[in-house]
Amino acid sequence: MKKGVIVLLSLLLLCAAGQVSASYAGARDPGLEQRLDTILGINLLARDREALSLVLRALNDQTPTATLARAKAYQALAQAIQDNEPAAAIALLDALSNEPEIAQDPHALAELSNARGEIYLHTQNRDALRRYLGELKDQSIAEPKLYFHRLHLIARSYDLLHDYEQALTYLLRAHEMVASIQDEQQQRRRQFINLHIGRTYARLRHFDSARQSLDKTIAESNRLGVTEYLPELHMVRGFVIQVTEGPNAAAEADFLKATTPVRGEPVGRTQMLAFNNLGTLKLHTGQYAAAEQYFSQGIEIAHQIDNSFELHIMRFNQGYVMVKQGGYEQGLSIMEAAFADFSQVAPPGTQADMLNYLADAYETAQRLERALGVLRQQLELRETAHRAERERTLAELQVQHDAQEASLRIQLLEQESALREAKIAEQQRNQYWVILLSSILFVALALSLLAARYVRQLNRQLSQANQELTELSHRDPLTQLYNRRALAGFSEQHGDLLVLFDLDKFKGINDQFGHDVGDQVLQSVSQRVKAVLRTEDLLVRWGGEEFLVVIRRINELGLDVIKAKLHSAIVHSPFADITVNASGGAVFLQGQTSTWQSAIKRADELLYQAKANGRARILLEHNGEVQTWQMREAPPENS
């Protein structure tokens, strides 16, 4: 059963601003910074509020701005999270950011921005976070620790907004920064970033990459004694094991380790979700008494930490267990109430997933009409989700259409203006013939100027028409992508990655649903793939249902990112009964494949090899080896 998004924990110490002499802007106080290091606990909270109070009392007019800002941020975060007063904490940060001394110190301003973003993350204020992301990405930060914090703050923000490809991009950038920050906190940063990289791989359903990252990080954490994020690491690994191998002893062992918080830290959301996952595991194996006990423990923690989102899910699960044990009336009543509360905050797609279990509960209780009603409701929710996606796509097409219409109107107005000027010039010529000879000379000069202007306008229109004809000849009329002819206009660059893919069983879609639907599938794939590429990358409709992607300046770290992006863009269901898969070949422009012709020929050979091996995969030839990128839709999550 699907769970809510796990609250992501930050590693760096946050800062807020205070009043300080501008002459100290940009500096830091080593002694106070070290004291602040010792205060940091999990969930961005000071382990000892009294110790934080002592640091705050030690601040004075001589304290460097950045250090003072960091200490004040602890105060704001404690107020937002421990005291549950996020609005007051944001007001404190606003007031501090308006202080003239703070405004002159970019490090202090960056600390304030990071603190505000962390509060939005903790309170799951998605609307505020969407608006704030632009400011977070625009600010320039020179200090490595602050820049590292900014990168993983942006990554965790994208995770909360369910844009996991962008989240992984910023997490990998943060991972590159860790090695450049040499201090006693380096291993904690590595553990923190690797935790989130593993979790993001799991959200993208790249479970092999997730498992490798998590196994390595857990072993390294135990060896070095860096234990603060071990419960979360075990929690995520247990989830990956349960999804890939099913409920087993290894997954249960990881979940049990996650139920115990690190020494000195309070019981929190990680422990709550661990009990919920243990209950789900026992539910799947038919151990209902144990499942109910684990759900009850998770619900108790949810009440303690005031977490209503997962509380609804665990109450729903608890009711489901009661139904399976024969308590139909009470169990169904609990499930119905929990789903009613959950549907107020969850998107349609997530609601539809939960309705599978409610329908099964009604069937177990022999209430078949209610089960049928729930299945109809589930279908409506899925149609709502698909309709929202289609409306978003149509809105983008409408914007393009409006832009084209505006361009055409400008051309028409220019033509009308030219005709009007030509008529005026003709009238002037007729009048000047009856004027004195001296006026005729003046008219001749004026006509020459008008004629020159008119010729320039004609030349400009002719040049524009030629450009439009050239553009049309290089565009595919259905998808508006580049065609084969356009590829000759781009230069070959050593190291570029070429991916040639073909939609699997596309003829069957045309035969079963008609060519209009087939055209819409091609347009859907084109729009989705184009959306995940950068501006410098190329997307070409090679012919029929075959596409060519050219990825510029790709590196080793970028291979996993482009693999994830292509998977999410290609493998989808544009219509309820149609799932798109693809087979393809991928090669780099280098060595024997250093030209378009040789690279495309080799990619085409790999494409046919992928077809022969069972379709739904892209074969990548890299460093003399052939790797397989699975392009098959993964099974739904169970936790």
TrEMBL record:
Catalytic reaction annotation:
2 GTP = 3',3'-c-di-GMP + 2 diphosphate
Name the EC number(s).
2.7.7.65
Any GO MF annotation of the entry: diguanylate cyclase activity
InterPro entries in the record: Diguanylate_Cyclase, GGDEF_dom, Nucleotide_cyclase, Rev_trsase/Diguanyl_cyclase, TPR-like_helical_dom_sf, TPR_rpt
Transmembrane ranges?
432-452
Show which residues constitute the signal peptide: 1-22
Show the PANTHER family listed in the entry. Answer: DIGUANYLATE CYCLASE DGCM-RELATED, REGULATORY COMPONENTS OF SENSORY TRANSDUCTION SYSTEM
Q: What is the official name of this protein in its record?
A: diguanylate cyclase
Which organism was this protein described from?
Alishewanella aestuarii B11
